[in-house]
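S.,

Sequence below, as promised.
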Amino acid sequence: MNVDKDTYRKFCRETSQLSVFIRDWWLDAVCGEDNWDVVLEEKNQTIITALPFYKVKKGMFKGITLPPLTPHLGPYIFYPPDQKYSSKLSYEKEIMSNLIEKLPRFDFFVQSFSPSFTNWLPFYWKGFLQTTRYTYILDDLTDPDRLISDFSHEKRKNLKRAEQILTVRSDWTPDEFYTHHKSSLAKTGQKINYSPELFRRIVQAAMEHHAGRIVYAIDEKGVVHGALFIVWDENSGYDLVSTIDPDLRSSGSIALLIKEMLIYLSSRTKSFDFEGSMIENVENSFRHFGAKQIPYFKIMKYNSMILRIIKGIRHNA
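The prediction came back faster than expected:
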């Protein structure tokens, strides 16, 4: 019996503040129930910090990494009210150091942490490495009309064009979305990197927990131009997977779908994360929706000497 995991499942049921990506039902869907675990710190029988993780084995190496279709994990931290800044840093050092010590033995650790996580020093002091990545976030959804007016001139033109020729619908199945994504990628010589079974599990779990929606844009001939799978929690919505037919890119379907989802999410959450890409043309598109560039950390450690040599890393500190 895994006491920490059972305790964490109960905590997930009782706490609304958690990111969708660290909830037990999400981890069950993307990892499988037996392939994830969690380390906890408790005070007065209340969880004050938790670090869930995905357990993998690659050949001879045991690792902790991100599950598929999961942009970030990282620690959940409960902060005492009215905490002074210096006390907050001391608190983070203590509880994160304890979490790190509780992690099982691993040969490699590679996780991206939530953009809300800003102090990775306790990991640095334990020999971890970091690289900075970027996402793009609209941080206030209370007035979606204002957000849409802040789209770039090009995006507003795309939106106007799409509104004239496309209709947004939300009755697609996960298999229909998957088939469209697979065929759209094939047109550009790319292969899809997740399975239909995995996508089916994720969509089903998200919809069962009122935290996910598929939307697509279709023309009068019944041709789908693009689609989004969006998930959300109390604090943010996320553009998790998008698909666009490269032959129909000029129709502006994604601009129309983003507009519709900002309106839909404005009554359900606080912000919207495009799950920004480091790919230049994708970054350019997200930026033109008026979103702010926000950094987040990719945290790594390689305990295996063989992996350090392969990665060209001399040390972890």
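The chain has a mean pLDDT of 94.

Coffee later?
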